[in-house]
Amino acid sequence: MKVGLHLGLGQHLTMTPQLQQAIKLLQLSTLELQQEVQSALDSNPLLELDDGSEPAGMSSEPHDSTPEAPDKAGETLDLDQRSDMPDQLPVDTAWDDIYVGSGSGTGGEPVDEDGDPIETRNAQAESLQDHLRWQLNLTPFNDTDRLVAEAVIDGLDSRGYLTVSLQELADTVQHWIDEVPEEDEILAVLHRVQQFDPPGVAARDLCECLLIQLGQRPAGTEGLAGAQCLLRDHADKLAAGDLPGLMRATRLSEAEIQQVMALIRQLKPHPGEGWAGPDDEKTLIPDVVVRKHNGRWRVELNPEAAPRLRVNSGYAAMLRRADSSRDNQFIRDHLQEARWLIKSLQSRHETLLKVATCIVEHQRGFLEEGPEAMKPLILRDVADEVGLHESTISRVTTQKYLHTPRGLFELKYFFSSHVGTSSGGEASSTAIRAMIKKLVAQENPRKPLSDNKIADLLQEQGIEVARRTIAKYRESLNIPSSSDRKRLL
Fold this sequence. Notes:
Strand order of the largest sheet: 3-2-5-6
Pfam family, one: Sigma54_AID
GO molecular function, one term: DNA-binding transcription activator activity
Number of strands: 8
Domain RNA polymerase sigma factor 54 DNA-binding: 329-487
Number of helices: 21
Radius of gyration: 32 Å
Strand content: 5-15%
Shape: extended
Order of helices and strands: HHEHHHHHHHHHHEEEHHHHHEEEEHHHH
Structural class: alpha+beta
Region (Disordered): 45-86
Function: Sigma factors are initiation factors that promote the attachment of RNA polymerase to specific initiation sites and are then released.
């Protein structure tokens, strides 16, 4: 094979480390941003939180009385004018290729004084399985029964229901010990686990879940016997809302049926709710706050969600008097890294505020009147108005939340497609969903509105929506069909 040199033209996308960092910060949620900023504060001694107070600075008097040291404490340096610190790094380079981080972890993450990653110090929310295992450790079991109970706990889904059969539990235990437990023994262990907190956990179906919760109610509870009878022997009629059939089968009056139904509605169909994983337990912090002041809507960043950093002037002043080139290089590297992070954060704040302001301008009707006044809005509309790309708008609005007088909403909530009206205008799909929800809430439970009837009612308001569109919107709102919504009064 002959070796040769060939010249060719081509195009490829390249990004500087600064642009990569800016994009990364832009798409982070509030909690992720706080973790990123805290990690930077732990690893970079030249960064500090800007709380609005005067920088404390370090004593400018050097220990060896070097004449070149500055005379004033906390002397401000013109950091942006240093010729040895470039404004941009070459494209397709990495931070670690240019600057050495201060973290000592194997992956570059900051570590504590014991050498453990700082992230491992964050406490995690307790899961449902952890809560049940804690109770299991306090309950007397022999070795075989404990293994069965472990298998039961591992077989629960996020709702708290047991998703494996008794035979599958026996097969699981057989992998751990040679002895195969009997079905009666497995069932006995299951019943003991079903007495754990939360009530109704480890049930195999909805009726069993509700019966377990009823079994833990005081014996004198009104309607307890009737509720257990309905769930155990007449669940099909109960699900269908067959009031006359229930009255004939149980010989209970309508008032007694109402009392039983009120008791059943107090039960929790999904006992696993509230015990989700740590990711589902994160507290939502608004990134932007909108409030009305003097008749005008004002949009501002949430100070708690918009961390502000500054360069520690005391450490920066040491750059002029470093005793060795190694110290000098260490400070210079972290100073440039701090500058770029501050600029990226400032760019993120400005972009987020600009996009949120544009959204609020378009959706003033929602703030004044509610979801029914929502206007159609797509990413392109905001992108054209603020002069950014649609992909940037998508990053800005993902996992970013706006606090309004009507509640906390993700910025993506304010984007929706449009549906034509009889007058030639457009209606937001979000507004139509709100109208459907309002109509269903006001309907007669004995005669629920069908999808065709809802379409006719919206037609009277000038909104032309097909029946199948109504069905799609209704299902997205988790509203059952008219036949399933018919319930006992």
